[in-house]
Target: Retrovirus-related Pol polyprotein from transposon 17.6
Amino acid sequence: MDVLETVETSEWASPIVVVPKANGQIRICGDFRVGLNSQLHVERYPIPSMHELLIKLKEMNIFSRLDYSDAYFQLPTPFGLYRYKRLSFGVSSAPAIFQRYIESILMQIPNCPTFLEDIIVIGASMTVHLKTLELVLAKLQENELSCKIQKCEFYKTEIAYLGQVL
Model:
C-alpha cells in the first residue's frame, strides 16, 4: 500500500504502539498523543449521529455493508527516520479528514450513508440497491480505495450496522 518512506532527518519522531485486531492480527499505530497531536490544529468535520443515519435507513429493505482495508492508510497525505505517506491512525484529525474525504467522493450517490470506515449501501428494492452498490464500488475504485471483502456483507434483508440490527 506504500504507507511509509525513508527520510534522512525529521524534526518530529513518535513512538509506535501495537494494537491487537479482533482477528488476532496486529495494527501498528503511531503514538501521537505526546508530540504531534498537541501541536496540530485539529480538523473539524461533522461525523453523522446515529439518529441521522437511522433516519436515512428507514424504510429500506436491502442492505450491503462495506469495510475498507486499512481505511486511513488509503488516504495519501503530505504529512510525515520513516515518514507517513498516508493518513495514520492516532492522528487527532484523522477521523474528520477521513469522513470529509469519503463524503466528498460519495456525495452525489444517494442511499449510501457513511460513518468513518463504515459505509452501508441501502435500497428499498433490489434494483435500486444494485444500482447504488455499483455506483459506490465504481467510485471507490476510481479513487483507489479498497474494501476487505471478507468483512463486507451483500444483499441482506437484515444487517448489523453501528451496533444496531436493521
Q: What stands out?
A: The mean pLDDT is 83. The chain has one domain: 4-165. Residues 100 and 149 are 23 Å apart (CA to CA). The first strand starts at residue 4 and ends at 6.
